[in-house]
Design brief:
The chain is built from 6 helices and 10 strands. It has helices at residues 32-41, 56-63, 80-90, 110-123, 164-169, 191-201, and strands at 4-10, 26-27, 30-31, 47-52, 70-72, 97-102, 131-136, 139-140, 144-147, 174-178.
Length: 202
C-alpha cells in the first residue's frame, strides 16, 4: 500500500498581511487555518502534521480540537524551507510520499486533494522518483506531492523558496494533474486577497 503523509506549513511571519496573522483571520466563523485543516482531515492521507512557528501558542489553542500533531519549528524565521525540513524529519519513515500544503489555501477542497493523492498512488514506484503538481489552465499551483526519493534532498533547501528549486531540477519526474477550479492558485497573502476570499465564501 502506498502511504502519503501531509505537512501543513503554518509557521510564517505573515508579514504581508497588514490586518493581523493571515491564518487567524476568519471566514464566516472559523479561521483560515481551521478551514484548511478541516478540508485536509477528510481526504485520503495517512497522517498529517502541522508545522508551527510564529505565534505558536495561539495556534495550539485553536488547533487542539483537531487532535493532529503540532510540530514547533524553532527556525521559522529562516523561511519556508526550515518548516519543510522539520516536517520531513518528523513524518513516518514508512511514508512513500509527502504532500506539502500551504495553510493559507482554504479554498482547496477535499476532492482536489484526493485527486492529487490518487494520481500519486497510481504512478508511484519504488524505483522512480515522482513529483505530482496540480495545474489550472496551464498554471502550476499547490499542493505538491514528492515521493520519498526526494526526502534526503530537502535537507539542502534554504530560504523562502521552499521546494521550488527541487522542482526546477527534476522536471522529468513531474506528473501534472489538471484541476478544474483555480483554488490551487489562491493563497491569502495580503488584505486584497483576504477580501477576495470573503467574497468567494459568501
Amino acid at each position: 500500500m502506498v502511504r502519503v503523509s501531509c505537512l501543513v506549513l503554518a509557521a510564517g511571519l505573515s508579514s504581508r498581511m497588514t490586518i493581523g496573522n493571515k491564518l487567524l483571520l476568519k471566514i464566516k466563523k472559523i479561521t483560515i487555518i481551521e478551514k484548511t485543516i478541516e478540508n485536509l482531515i477528510l481526504c485520503n492521507i495517512d497522517d498529517l502534521y502541522v508545522i508551527l512557528g510564529h505565534q505558536n501558542n495561539l495556534f495550539k489553542k485553536i488547533l487542539k480540537k483537531f487532535n493532529v500533531p503540532l510540530i514547533f519549528n524553532k527556525s521559522y524565521k529562516e523561511g519556508m524551507s526550515s518548516s519543510i525540513k522539520k516536517g520531513i524529519q518528523t513524518i513516518d519513515s514508512k511514508s512513500n510520499g509527502v504532500m506539502i500544503c500551504l495553510a493559507d489555501m482554504p479554498r482547496i477542497n477535499t476532492n482536489t486533494y484526493n485527486t492529487l493523492i490518487e494520481k500519486f498512488k497510481t504512478y508511484y514506484t519504488k524505483k522512480n522518483p515522482l513529483i505530482v503538481i496540480p495545474e489550472y489552465k496551464g498554471v502550476s499551483g499547490n499542493p505538491v506531492i514528492f515521493s520519498n526519493h526526494f526526502f534526503s534532498y530537502f535537507e539542502n533547501i534554504t530560504g523562502d523558496k521552499g521546494a521550488k528549486i527541487l522542482i526546477e531540477k527534476n522536471k522529468k519526474y513531474i506528473k501534472k494533474v489538471k484541476i478544474l477550479n483555480n483554488s490551487i492558485l489562491k493563497d491569502v497573502d495580503n488584505k486584497k486577497m483576504y477580501e477576495e476570499l470573503l467574497k468567494h465564501e459568501q
